[in-house]
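Fold it.
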Amino acid sequence: MSDVAGQRLLLVDTVDQLPGLLPWHAFVALRGCDLILLGTADHPMASHLDMAEERYEIVPADVGEQAVGRADLLGGLSLADKARATWVVERITATGAVAYIFGPDDTDAFTRSLGMEAAREGIEVEVVYFGVAPKGVKLLDLVGVEERLLAPGGCPWDAEQTHATLAKYAIEEAHELADAIAIDDPAAIAEELGDVLLQVVFHAEMAETFDIDAVAAGITEKLVRRHPHVFGRDGDAYTSADDAGQVQSNWDAIKAAEKPDRTGPFDGVPSGLPAMALAAKVQSKAERLGFVWEDEAAAAEKVAEELGEVLDARDAEETREEIGDLLLAAVSLARASGVDPEDALRRRIARFRSRFEAVVEGLDADEVAALTPEAWRARWAATAE
């Protein structure tokens, strides 16, 4: 151990995205030190230490060369890391208990050098880990990246965007997410969720009247407000919900009270939804008011009826109308069967694409063009699962 009582090195881990957040044990340990050291002047903790009027110093980036032994060189120790680590050890010798707070620029090599130099001098080393970082800290990295892209000198393309020009991308990304969900690919789902999340952050960062915190606060408050059975207090309405149906009923009642100006049965349904999803949403709204098929069999009968009317249509216009009715009836049947029609159709489209690709695999354009109806059917049947 060191010859001087009280000499020790405290290595403190933190969360770079939330530099002011420390667990209680780390805070107590820091308060017990004579000096705090940071690796760089722009360390995320610097401003917090300034506000707390805590004494700290910056480890110089260049403190001259230090002798490096053969064992150090074989271990990959660099001259710069050894020099900075030696400087820290000298401050411990002169001061006593010193805390070094890890920062985003610290490398494993420097941390290893620091521990080795302290051990050589017989200085006690203690590591204080943050523990489990709060969920969501990586979202702050995304916000920081988008801030940089939109800042002066950032990305020219990002700087030219508006809410209107970005709207189409939000729709595209949502559809790509739906595709990933339809094929049940976890890696693709995670990737597409990231693209959707980017759209949220992008819009929030470019806005002038709100920011990402306002967006997050708004949806958080809404979720709490509309889940009184989870977050409510004694005396609140709708605090009982024994099943999903009751939850939906409560949600609708609370939403209606929040938006009294919405008096029409379909107010709030976005007309820009894909047709299949729009049909399901409109039917769902009507169903909540009591317009619903008695059972699955009744919905199936309606499909058969509408198919007959399609076959009996007298001209193109009537055919178009009757096919529309048939598709609406098919959506009703799907919902009566407990199936999301949009999801069901996407899954079968994906299956059709995969199977069709197998049908034409190995054929060039001329060979595809030469296929007869019989050949098409034969190749299609050959790919049956």
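Residues 186-206 form the longest helix (21 residues).
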